[in-house]
Write a structure and sequence with these properties.
301 residues; 2 domains; 4-stranded mixed beta sheet; Ribosomal Protein L15, Chain: K, domain 2; Four Helix Bundle (Hemerythrin (Met), subunit A); alpha/beta
Amino acid sequence: MSFRTVVISSSCKLSYKNDYLVVRNEEGMKSVHLSEIETVLIDSTAISFSSHLLLELIKNKIKVVFCDEKRNPYGEFVPYYGSYNNVKKIQNQISFKEPLKKQLWKKIVQNKIKNQASLLLQVGSDKGDLLLKYVEDVELDDRTNREGHAAKVYFNSLFGFDFSRSQKNDINAALNYGYSIILSLINKEIVNNGYLTQMGIKHRNEFNFFNLSCDFIEVFRPIIDRFVYYHQKEVFSTTYKMNLVNLLNHKYYYCGKLYFLSDIIRLYVKNMLDCMEKETILNGKEFLLNEGKNYANDPVF
């Protein structure tokens, strides 16, 4: 099973040879077997690579994420085909019933707010209990927008009343970077299962290529929020970015078992898609940060 996130951050040439990703620069040559790689993050515009390598990466269902000149994730490779029965999967996806979507969105919002409350309780905020009350108030399709009300309380508690997600600062840059990394893995798993990222449950923006991924990412956002909270005084540097990427290699509980975050994303996406396909609810397969152990005792990475 693939497990490495390979980050290329300096000038070099990437190529393919005998099932290996080969990296050549002034210091010499390094190689990584493709079977070990889950994601390749191209973190510099001073990198060249062969078309043969790109094709092999796609064939092996390895996610490739490109950063812009500011080293922020900007785009990614998405293969045309992720499953042998893509057409059937897409036809089923088009016919997913609205009542089920509304039920799943309610469950997603409840899980997200629970995870936000868990983090607030960990950092000693008295607003954690308020968010747990919001969980009880979430209606079908979140018609009363408990998600939005919870978000306002949540971010004000973490970063202060002067903070806004629309501001241009290191905190928001770090949050956006971390979210982009997780979103990229979710995109990969949706495509690998044969579905379209464009067709969401709640997100239905005609200009958003990743509507369904934006639905699924919601429960994972507090993982990034947690890291940024404990490092909010730090400059958003290359080292900071690598630490965010490395969160994929940390373990959390999911369905009572300990997994790497990258594996949890794979399992969660599969479970969500199965729910939509089989017209069932998650039935205990939600991602809850305090499941199986006391999240407040987790080390701060």
